[in-house]
């Protein structure tokens, strides 16, 4: 909150000129100093410069200029506040409440923040207000905006565009200028050539990255969409003109969405591969018109995403509603969208709180202290010899720069470049390269189960029909298709499959279940009702391989989509040729059973379920209910909670989920490397434990302790029970509780729990969580929200690097090294993306991370010892009033140091993971001792050599030679030190010849004597 002062600004400009730009550069690095020097504090409402500070642990400052937009001039005579008089609480109305119709805003990392006049704060714009309820969104935006409203929103919010525009070698430029001015031409030319090559390669690399990023967003800006406006109706428009509140008409053709939008009418099938890494079609349903005061996101809780079409995803198919084509209101545009978030994460990567970079700074500070000691030494030597002050200062600064090689900071990134290239060859892509070094410190990897450890698809193993509160004999699908009956009808209809491009597409589990019936699917049909509305539906009919069925087929009229939080899905169906409607439900057995009449659930339900889950099978329950619907009833108005009640349990579907071939070897490799592995899944607990045992995540002979926690009920407080899964059956038979003794140093036990237990522990037994999480291996029935909470708690607990392989978007973003298994090169889901659909990428990433980290440390140590060696040598030569020659420095800095630094990181990663991690600290005792002993050895050898040479006959020092007071023996220096100043304009060859002549004269005189 500052206001620029003209007098201060003038003084700063003068400072820029007198300092030759050095002050301007300092202010660029320290924006808070710039604001302090140019501005004075004032009220935020009147500020023209805003100083922002990040809220993370780095707390970096950013200087932003406040921009004013004159809406009165843009809208001619029309007043802007008249356009939105019906919605006084909207962000845009609060922004234009300033007298004169002026809007003030700042731009931060591509996001615009406008000044909220009543709220006295800058607020983010570019999206619809989250405070809108479901009912308000339908009422306000269903009919679209007027052209003038669209123009106003575009000026205030900005266009729906993703613009991508394309190290400043300050130290090198300064030193090169100094060296050239002092006649150090040879080495300066060499450094200039190397710098040009380095800059050229850097520019080429940046150009390649910019082109890829530009191509990623370019098509987004050129999409033709159909927009509904008042009163014109539908018309074509370019996507760059879209604003939040616009209504899109989705009329069936494929479309790459240029914005985030909320579906209002109809349904859509989209490919969200860019978001989730899974190219499985996802069905989007319209936002319900719930008349309540809750914001629309809170009303839908974790499932609000099923109503949102995300930018960058592809609309594969649309289904019209009874009121016309599918409609969606624009929710967010530009960099506010899901795709914009991906681009922003590439342009502005989150700073990593990695200890290595902090300790590198402290290490450099230590070298600077050594350089300061050298500065005092040089000043004392040259001052005591009566040298001019300018020469003394120059030589003192020279020794200071020798102690701190300027390439040391870059040494920490040398291994990253090579590691990233090697990862790319293995089809592992990275949008945050600084995380590669962090992968070298991974000590824990978390996996999802289905699609990660196990195959994406499931194989049908058997079905157990249920009739009259008892289970019928198991039907094996290997013996033939399932006989006709309610269970077969449920399998044929209760799914989210779609008939697209001549084939059935959708969730792999649904696809296997449908194929097991032998039925066939037809393309989506539509039917006009008596009210004039049209309803779209899918028809399924018995196929050639299906069992004999007394039915022509079934039509799927409406779908309540699967929800990770609800653990179920259901469909409303109608048998062809009949007027009877039915509802079929499919989901987790425990959940489906809770919606059924207790009389229809067999008493042996839990025992039957556990007998299959304990063998690693995935079990799905199916249920049915007859619905009484009138012809006038709209399926969209059905209340889910009302229709999903009083069901009849039809049976259990048993599916086999095979491990991927790479899973067990990879987990064994990680275990041998002492890297802990954890499974976090939404599947059944017993199934997950069995998969953990079969995959080797839980070694043979280790015990699994089941943790179960219950919420308080009446006078009973919350409780926790512990059971060893292997002993549960025997203890039940003996009617006693097992006694569990856990040694603090033992690692032969593993905790397993479900999401509900985790929530209870987090709420009522938080002191127990650290012990449980550190030794927990299986976390089942976890919803996406519970996974995110679990990961947040784990990060706070461990405070160490961990890898994470999880489909939930939030958890992947939070992890130090989240990996998405996807066919795309870049995914908004995670920093790393592997195009190989198995977990083999995990050890590859850890190997390359370790190689990068070790290489960076080695180069860092080498440059440090090289700089200190040169420092010692230069200090000894100062005693003789001499320095190294040009070509000596060329050999040291280019032929030896540069070549070694460039080739040291080329070494491939070791093919096997060692059972220990590389050191993660520069200030570790082993590294410091190594550097210290090497420097001590170098110091002793150089001093010995220096004294030994001085004792040799025929070796003369400058003090023994009669020279002009303004001239002494001179040789030039290397890249990190400016040359010794010359007071006379002698050429080097002339100086050397004169010194040789004087030496010969003195030697001849000694012989004559």
Automatic annotation (TrEMBL):
One Pfam family recorded for the sequence: P5-ATPase
Q: Which segments show compositional bias classed as Basic and acidic residues? A: 981-995
Determine if Kinase is one of this entry's keywords: no
An MF annotation (GO) of this entry: P-type transmembrane transporter activity
- Cellular component, GO annotation: membrane
Question: According to the UniProt entry, what is the EC number of this protein?
Answer: 7.2.2.-
Write out the transmembrane intervals: 6-29, 155-181, 187-206, 360-382, 394-419, 859-878, 927-949
Location of this chain's protein in the cell: Membrane
What are the entry keywords? ATP-binding, Magnesium, Membrane, Metal-binding, Nucleotide-binding, Translocase, Transmembrane, Transmembrane helix
Where is the segment annotated Disordered? Answer: 969-995
Q: How does it sit in the membrane?
A: Multi-pass membrane protein
- Start and end of every P-type ATPase A domain? 235-346
Catalytic reaction annotation: ATP + H2O = ADP + phosphate + H(+)
| SUPFAM superfamilies reported in the protein's UniProt record | Calcium ATPase, transduction domain A, Calcium ATPase, transmembrane domain M, HAD-like, Metal cation-transporting ATPase, ATP-binding domain N
Give the main location.
membrane
Q: Which residues form the P5B-type ATPase N-terminal domain?
A: 4-116
The similarity annotation says: Belongs to the cation transport ATPase (P-type) (TC 3.A.3) family. Type V subfamily.
Q: By what name is this protein known?
A: Cation-transporting ATPase
Species in which this protein is naturally found: Anolis carolinensis
């Amino acid at each position: 909150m500052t206001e620029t002062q003209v007098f201060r600004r003038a003084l700063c400009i003068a400072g820029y000129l007198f300092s030759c730009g050095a002050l301007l550069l300092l202010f660029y690095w320290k924006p808070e100093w710039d604001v302090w020097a140019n501005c004075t504090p004032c009220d935020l409402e009147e500020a023209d410069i805003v100083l922002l500070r990040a809220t993370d642990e780095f707390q970096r400052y950013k200087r932003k200029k406040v921009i004013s937009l004159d809406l009165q001039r843009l809208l001619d005579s029309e007043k802007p506040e008249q356009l939105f008089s019906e919605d006084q609480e909207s962000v845009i109305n609060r922004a234009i409440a300033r007298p004169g119709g002026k809007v003030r805003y700042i731009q931060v990392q591509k996001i615009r923040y406008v000044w909220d006049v009543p709220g006295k704060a800058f607020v983010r714009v570019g999206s619809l207000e989250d405070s809108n309820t479901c009912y308000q969104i339908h009422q306000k935006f269903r009919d679209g905006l007027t052209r003038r409203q669209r123009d106003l929103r575009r000026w205030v919010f900005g266009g729906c565009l993703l613009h991508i525009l394309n190290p400043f070698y300050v130290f090198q430029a300064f030193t090169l200028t100094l060296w050239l001015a002092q006649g150090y031409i040879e080495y300066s030319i060499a450094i200039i050539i190397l710098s040009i090559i380095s800059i050229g390669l850097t520019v080429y690399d940046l150009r390649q990255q910019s082109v890829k990023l530009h191509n990623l967003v370019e098509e987004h800006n050129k999409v033709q969409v159909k927009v509904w406006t008042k009163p014109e109706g539908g018309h074509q428009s370019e996507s760059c003109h879209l604003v939040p509140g616009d209504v899109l008409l989705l009329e069936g053709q494929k479309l790459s969405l240029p914005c985030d939008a909320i579906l209002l009418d109809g349904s859509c099938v989209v490919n969200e591969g860019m978001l989730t890494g899974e190219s499985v079609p996802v069905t989007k349903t319209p936002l319900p018109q719930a008349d309540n005061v809750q914001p629309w996101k809170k009303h839908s809780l974790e499932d609000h995403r099923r109503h949102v079409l995300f930018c960058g995803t592809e609309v594969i198919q649309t289904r019209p509603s009874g009121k016309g084509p599918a409609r969606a209101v624009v929710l967010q545009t530009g960099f506010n969208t899901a795709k914009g978030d991906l681009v922003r994460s590439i342009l502005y990567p989150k700073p990593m709180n990695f200890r290595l970079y902090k300790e590198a700074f402290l290490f450099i500070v230590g070298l600077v202290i050594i350089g300061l000691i050298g500065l005092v030494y040089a000043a004392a030597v040259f001052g005591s010899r009566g040298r001019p002050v300018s020469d003394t200062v120059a030589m003192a600064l020279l020794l200071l720069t020798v102690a701190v090689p300027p390439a040391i900071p870059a040494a920490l990134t040398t291994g990253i470049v090579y590691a990233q290239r090697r990862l790319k060859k293995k089809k592992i892509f990275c949008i945050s390269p600084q995380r590669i070094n962090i992968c070298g410190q991974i000590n824990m990897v978390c996996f999802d189960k289905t699609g990660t450890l196990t195959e994406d698809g499931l194989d049908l193993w058997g079905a157990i029909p249920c009739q009259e509160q008892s289970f019928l004999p198991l039907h094996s699908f290997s013996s033939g298709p399932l006989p006709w009956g309610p269970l077969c009808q449920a399998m044929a209809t209760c799914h989210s499959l779609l008939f697209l491009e001549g084939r059935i597409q959708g969730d792999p589990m649904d696809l296997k279940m449908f194929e097991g019936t032998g039925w066939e699917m037809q393309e989506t049909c539509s039917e006009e009702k008596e009210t004039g509305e049209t309803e779209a539906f899918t028809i399924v009919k018995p196929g050639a391989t299906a069992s004999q069925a007394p039915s022509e087929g079934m039509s799927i009229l409406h779908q309540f989509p699967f929800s990770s939080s609800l653990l179920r899905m259901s469909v409303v169906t109608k048998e062809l040729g009949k007027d009877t409607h039915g509802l079929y439900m499919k989901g987790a057995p425990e959940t489906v059973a809770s919606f059924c009449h207790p009389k229809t659930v067999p008493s042996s339900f839990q025992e039957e379920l556990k007998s299959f889950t304990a063998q690693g099978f995935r079990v799905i329950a199916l249920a049915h209910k007859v619905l009484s619907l009138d012809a006038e009833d709209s399926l969209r108005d059905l209340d889910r909670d009302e229709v999903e009640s009083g069901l009849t349990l039809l049976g259990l579907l048993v599916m086999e989920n095979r491990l991927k071939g790479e899973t067990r070897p990879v987990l064994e490799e990680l275990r041998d490397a002492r890297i802990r592995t954890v499974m976090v899944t939404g599947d059944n607990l017993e199934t997950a434990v069995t998969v953990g045992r079969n995959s080797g995540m839980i070694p043979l002979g280790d015990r699994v302790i089941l943790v179960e926690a219950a919420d308080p009920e009446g006078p009973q407080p919350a409780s926790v029970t512990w059971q060893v899964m292997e002993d549960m059956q025997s203890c039940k038979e003996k009617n006693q509780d097992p006694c569990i003794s856990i040694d603090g140093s033992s690692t032969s036990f593993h905790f397993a729990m479900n999401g509900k237990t985790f929530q209870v522990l987090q709420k009522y037994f938080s002191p127990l969580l650290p012990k449980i999480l550190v030794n927990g291996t299986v976390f089942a029935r976890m919803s996406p929200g519970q996974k995110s909470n679990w990961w947040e708690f784990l990060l706070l607990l461990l405070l160490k690097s961990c890898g994470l392989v999880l489909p939930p978007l939030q958890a992947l973003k939070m992890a130090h090294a989240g990996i998405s298994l996807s066919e795309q090169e870049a995914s908004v889901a995670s920093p790393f993306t592997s195009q190989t659909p198995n977990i083999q990428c995990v050890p590859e990433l850890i190997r390359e991370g370790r190689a990068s980290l070790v290489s960076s440390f080695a180069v860092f140590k080498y440059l440090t010892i090289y700089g200190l060696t040169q420092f010692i040598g230069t200090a000894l030569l100062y005693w003789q009033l001499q320095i190294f020659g040009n070509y000596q420095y060329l050999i040291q800095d280019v032929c030896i140091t540069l070549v070694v630094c460039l080739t040291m990181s080329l070494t491939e990663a070791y093919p096997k993971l060692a059972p220990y991690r590389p050191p993660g600290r520069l200030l570790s005792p082993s590294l410091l001792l190594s550097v210290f002993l090497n420097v001590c050895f170098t110091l002793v050898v150089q001093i010995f050599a220096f004294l030994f040479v001085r004792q040799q006959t025929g070796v003369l020092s400058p003090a023994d030679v009669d020279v002009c007071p303004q001239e002494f023996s001179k040789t030039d220096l290397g890249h990190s030190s400016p040359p010794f100043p010359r007071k006379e304009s002698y050429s080097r060859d002339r100086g050397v010849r004169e010194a040789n002549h004087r030496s010969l004269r003195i030697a001849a005189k000694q012989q004559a004597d």
